[in-house]
């Protein structure tokens, strides 16, 4: 690696360290993963059945957690607090850095566009206001917290995630104790449809980009980093399974709607409708904070901008993160999100391959011995499985674009 490819310590000494707690770290991972997408999982898994979804969540959750633990070890082997793009530049050069920066940007901006559009629709429906105004009302607390940085994001994620979990438990409990679930709706299995469900689950768990932020915030307690990753991912998997269990179990595959809040409203009444939509807003808000902050800090990292002490650079970074998604949503171009969603397959492939390569390079060229190592999770067999599954998910996305997937899979 040439000296030009390494972060110039005279220009960029890494992001400043901001202390967060273990539970705030867990909340950041959980909030990043539990976006509005959880509300479409019941519909996406209806063809294969709930057992197929459980299998998909186990496979995707384990492999994504392994990838996140690779990033955690790489961060612990590095003296300078860098983001994914900076870590890739340090260990893989500029090509790897630009690839992972492109993956983060595609995934992140696509999600923010969806949140700007979705939040506007929900608030417009709830309060009878213009959709653009609804998106703006959502954006204000979103951008303010991202501007304030990691510590504010951790505290906000912890508070809002608690409310989000309460609403999920209320909705699921209301379903189980009210209309109840039919066992037949939960035990059918159509193995042929497992592949598209695995693809769906793979991208429901993409949160590797949050790990360097956690490493920066938990630098005072390095061993808490892998524990926060595992706890956040286990909580994610549990709730990604719980919502489809209640929805599919109550309504069955034929009555489920693409956005499950609609089906819940039909069955449980207007109160459930409000609860479900408030939950959706909170889910989008927590994801907005985690993804927006990660995009912002990767911009600082990739372009060696000062993360503190320069209002101009912070304004420029926040503008790059917030303005394009809002304008695309406000101008009614949110259909563009579908194209970005397909490109998210590329992001997923990059997010699986780059951490494997970084881990191997960091173990031979890292700055220091880490307080924790990935151990058996970094076995070559796991690494090969990780790259293979995420690579096939990317291939599935490409085949979907050109219309070559079997009927019923798309």
Protein architecture, described:
It comes from Pseudonocardia kunmingensis. This is Amino acid permease. It is a multi-pass membrane protein. With 410 residues, this protein is mostly helical. The protein is built from 16 helices and no strands. It has helices at residues 22-33, 41-44, 50-76, 84-92, 94-127, 131-148, 150-177, 184-187, 194-204, 211-217, 224-255, 260-268, 270-302, 311-330, 336-365, 380-401. Helix 7 (150-177) packs antiparallel against helix 13 and helix 9 packs across helix 16 (380-401). It is globular and about 55 Å long.
Q: In terms of topology, how is this protein built?
A:
Blueprint: H1 22-33, H2 41-44, H3 50-76, H4 84-92, H5 94-127, H6 131-148, H7 150-177, H8 184-187, H9 194-204, H10 211-217, H11 224-255, H12 260-268, H13 270-302, H14 311-330, H15 336-365, H16 380-401
Helix pairs in contact: 1-7, 1-11, 1-13, 3-9, 3-11, 3-15, 3-16, 4-5, 4-15, 5-6, 5-13, 5-14, 5-15, 6-13, 6-14, 7-11, 7-13, 9-16, 12-13, 13-14, 15-16
Subcellular location: Cell inner membrane
Protein name: Amino acid permease
Transmembrane segments: 20-41, 53-76, 97-116, 128-150, 159-177, 189-207, 228-251, 271-295, 315-334, 340-359, 380-405
Classify the oligomer. single chain
Can you identify the CATH superfamily? Amino acid/polyamine transporter I
Helix and strand string, N-terminal first?
HHHHHHHHHHHHHHHH
Radius of gyration: 21 Å
Beta content: under 5%
The major sheet is characterized as: none
Overall domain count: 1
Overall average pLDDT = 85
Distance between the termini: 42 Å
Please mark out the parts with pLDDT under 50 across 5 or more consecutive residues, or reply none: 1-12
What's the CATH class, please?
A: Mainly Alpha
What characteristic shape results from the CA principal axes? globular
Structural class computed from helices and strand pairing: mainly alpha
Output the CATH topology. Amino acid/polyamine transporter I
In the CATH hierarchy, the architecture is Up-down Bundle
The residue fraction in helices comes out at over 70%
Number of strands: 0
